[in-house]
UniProtKB/TrEMBL annotation:
Role: The transhydrogenation between NADH and NADP is coupled to respiration and ATP hydrolysis and functions as a proton pump across the membrane.
A GO CC term attached to the entry: plasma membrane
GO function terms (MF aspect): NADP binding; proton-translocating NAD(P)+ transhydrogenase activity
Organism: Marivita hallyeonensis
Keyword vocabulary terms for this entry: Cell inner membrane, Cell membrane, Membrane, NAD, NADP, Nucleotide-binding, Translocase, Transmembrane, Transmembrane helix
Span within the parent record: 11 to 391 of 535
Intracellular or extracellular location(s): Cell inner membrane
Domain Alanine dehydrogenase/pyridine nucleotide transhydrogenase NAD(H)-binding: 148-316
Membrane association type: Multi-pass membrane protein
Name recorded for this polypeptide: NAD(P) transhydrogenase subunit alpha
């Protein structure tokens, strides 16, 4: 049985779903590995490195999709790729099932079994396959690096012969996976780091990383913005107002803002308003990791970097993991390889698509010509 990875077709995508290392592991599971020529180039993996790892290099996408029984890729397939799907083939990829009717219908009609990486249930057993988390971790790190690259000063305070340098003040809004990675990066660079989240239970995590949790002047019991499964819910108007008031108070004093606040299946909440941007010092930087979902900052332009009239840089890039393609490919390929391990219980190169398994079931969005999305709620937590 052959598992193959095509070159990503999405403009500007640098990641690849199979690395020489992951291919070695996949071969131990009994699979033959295929890669389209040049697929790993932008992530730092040449054809020669794959060949050394026992991978067969295939010249065209058509041949790759035809030969591979299992296709592993990063981005949801585009129209051309959907046409290449075939009966009995397994596709493991991000697939955006909730907003990809064309893809769902195509996979169903063709009889391809699709495992959507964003649907991996977030339970402990599945953490090793949780590509949303591995990519969010990179985005959080890179957001701080990107901010630093656009900030004219040190993060850490210094007393030098040439003068005293104050430490940068960083505010991270939203302390989920990306936010916590940003906090860790910011504190390790020596910035004074503040963080806020509507889920007060993360305060302890934030503080354990050396940052200060921003509490609102709000009744304790009403502070709770947690909904089910560790995700946020929409804040009450009173809570949102208290949050904005606090941010307005902080804005003139903060050098770097990293926003990561998201609410499942909604546009990103608007938390950093125009007047807050206007009250920031020139040279300040905002990195808006919610740009894909409309942005947490009112002035964010998706996929762009802008500088406001008062000299604040606002970065709305949505491709941070791709900007660290080697690291991202290594982690993503490992997520895929763990998925394959669970799909190959006998390590004999035979895929067993066990729809009784909560994790496999949860991530499968089409199976044997049926749409199997959304999945039933998981039995175990
Ligand atoms: P996310 O990307 O959906 O949201 C990012 C953060 O924004 C969340 O922490 C959310 O509370 C916060 N937020 C929403 N509205 C806000 C507002 N108005 N102001 C400030 N912050 C706001 O979240 P995520 O990073 O995917 O993580 C969500 C949860 O899932 C977390 O509790 C995380 O620990 C948990 N998780 C569990 C596992 C696992 O058990 N395997 C894996 C990954 C994540």
């Amino acid at each position: 049985v052959k598992i193959g990875t095509p070159k990503e077709v999405f403009e500007g995508e640098n990641r690849v779903a199979m690395t020489p290392d992951s291919a070695r592991q996949l071969q131990k599971l009994g699979y033959d590995c295929l890669i389209e020529t040049g697929a790993g180039e932008k992530a730092g993996f040449s054809d020669a490195l794959y060949e050394e790892a026992g991978v067969t290099v295939i010249k065209t996408p058509a041949a790759l999709w035809k030969e591979a029984d299992i296709v592993a890729k990063v981005r949801q397939p585009d129209g051309g790729e959907l046409k290449r799907l075939r009966e009995g083939q397994t596709l493991i990829s991000f697939f955006n099932p909730a907003a990809n009717e064309e893809g769902m219908e195509a996979a169903k009609k063709k009889g391809a079994n699709v495992i959507a990486m964003e649907m991996v249930p977030r339970i402990s057993r599945a953490q090793k396959m949780d590509a949303l988390s591995s990519m969010a971790n990179i985005a959080g790190y890179r957001a701080v690096i990107e901010a630093g690259n656009n900030f004219g000063r040190f993060f850490t305070g210094q007393v030098t012969a040439a003068g005293k340098v104050p430490p940068a003040k960083v505010l991270v809004v939203g302390a989920g996976v990306a936010g916590l990675a940003a906090i860790g990066t910011s504190t390790s660079l020596g910035a004074i780091t503040y963080a806020f989240d509507v889920r007060p239970e993360v305060a302890e995590q934030v503080e354990s990383m050396g940052a200060e949790f921003v509490f609102l002047d709000f009744e304790e019991e009403q502070q709770d913005g947690s909904a089910t499964g560790g995700y946020a819910s929409v804040s009450s108007p009173e809570f949102a107002a208290a949050q904005l008031a606090k941010f307005r108070e902080l804005a003139p004093d903060i050098d770097i803002v990293i926003t990561t606040a998201l609410i499942p299946n909604r546009e990103a909440p608007e938390l950093w308003t125009k007047d807050m941007v206007e009250s920031m010092k020139p040279g300040s930087v905002i990195v808006d990791l919610a740009a894909e979902k409309g942005g947490n900052c009112k002035l964010t332009v998706k996929d762009e970097k802008i500088v406001t009239d008062n000299g604040v840089t606002i970065i709305g890039y949505t491709d941070f993991p791709s900007r660290m393609a080697t690291q991202a490919s290594n982690l993503y390929a490992t997520n895929i390889r763990h998925m394959m391990t669970d799909l190959t219980p006998e390590k004999d190169g035979q895929i067993v698509h066990n729809m009784e398994d909560d994790v496999i079931r949860g991530a499968t969005v089409t199976y044997e010509k049926e749409i199997t999305f959304p999945p039933p709620p998981p039995k175990v937590q």
